[in-house]
Design a protein that fits this description.
Layout: H1 2-33, H2 45-65
């Protein structure tokens, strides 16, 4: 049963990553259409979520591993 619960948890993270990634791609396309600055997608909500994940997930993994 623990394997099934782990699979469900992993599926939730993969679906969330896909949704946030798609949202970010839409922001990039919108910025290109509007001829906005190159950094505009990175200061949008999905960009900030991705940046925070890149910074804090390895740190969290390191902290839990020690």
């Amino acid at each position: 049963m623990a394997g099934f619960v782990g699979l469900i948890k992993l599926s939730v993270f993969i679906i969330a990553a896909g949704l946030i990634g798609n949202w970010f791609v839409l922001e990039v396309k919108k910025a290109k259409r509007e001829d906005a600055e190159w950094y505009k997608p990175y200061i949008s909500p999905p960009g900030i979520i991705i940046i925070l994940a890149i910074i804090f997930l390895p740190l969290l993994g390191w902290m839990l591993g020690n």
